[in-house]
Amino acid sequence: YTVAVPDDQLLERFNGFILPLLQKLKVLNRKNANLRAHRDLLLPKLVSGEIDVSGAEAALEAAE
What we know:
Layout: H1 8-48, H2 56-63
């Protein structure tokens, strides 16, 4: 089978484009997992009333 193999310059350009995207993807996946973990921790407490958020809107407005 014939396989096309790019030259070194093209590989360097490709890696220069792709590697930052892969790094960003890795960071975003980590952040997403962190957000899911926080959601899974907080949601049951919010639903059960263990955490009260009735004053949260006023606190946000005051912070602005």
